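Deliverable D5.2: sample structural annotation.
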Amino acid sequence: MSTLSERIDWLIMHFEISQSALANLAGVRQPSVASWLSGKTKNMKSGPALALCSKLPISQEWLVNGTGEPLRSDAKYPSQQLLTNDFNPFCGNMRRIPVLSYPDAGASDSSNLIQARLEAFENGDCIWVDKELPDDCFAWRVIGRSMEPDFQEDDILVIDPTITPMPGDFVVALWLSRQSNVVEMLFKKYKERGYDESGNLLFDLIPLNDDYPKYESEKEQLNIIGILVEHRRSYRRKR
C-alpha cells in the first residue's frame, strides 16, 4: 500500500466504517476523505494523521509514509474503541447492516447485490442492529402510503431474507407489473389461502391502507425476498 488512497481504503474496509465516520475521527470534513480515496490528495497533514492514530490502533509511520505494519502491536478489538457519533460503548453487541434502495435490495445478481451493500457501507448508509441477526439482513425505507397508519413513508425496516414467512408477517416482495413490465418492490402483510390443485401455495399481499389494492399470488408474479424483523421510526420534525 504505497499510496495514501490505498491506505485509506484499507482503513475503511478493515474497520468497517464510512467516509463520514472516518472524517469525524480525523477531525476533517467528508470531502477531505473523498480526496484521500480518489488520490487527489496524496499526502495527509499531521493534524488528521495524529487524530486518527490517537483513536485507531494504527501506526502513524504506516499511515503517513506507508512503511511498516498498519496495526500497532497493542491493537485490540479496534472497532470497540471508536467512541464517536458513529460508534459507542454498546457496539460490542451490535453490527451494521446496509440501508439499500430499490432496486438494490431486490438485485437478482449476487455480484450486483454485494456491490450495492459495499457502496452503502462506503456512503455511510447503514444502521446498527443486534449482532445475532444474519449477515444477509438489510434495511429498507418505506415508500408510499399503502401501509399507513402502522408504517409511514421513510420509516426504516430491518429485513431478514433467510426466514420463511408465516401468516400475519410483514414481507418485502418483488412484483412484475403487467402494465409497465417493470419489477417493483412491495411491502405488505402476508396472508396464506391454502393450495391450488397443483399443490402451489396461494397467498395474498395485503395493504393496511384500504385505499390500495391487494396482490394475489395466482394472478400476479410475486417473489418474497424478506421478512420484517424490526421497525424504526424517527420522530424528528422535518424542516
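Annotation notes: The chain has a mean pLDDT of 82. The first strand starts at residue 94 and ends at 98.
The annotation will be released with the project's public dataset once the embargo ends.
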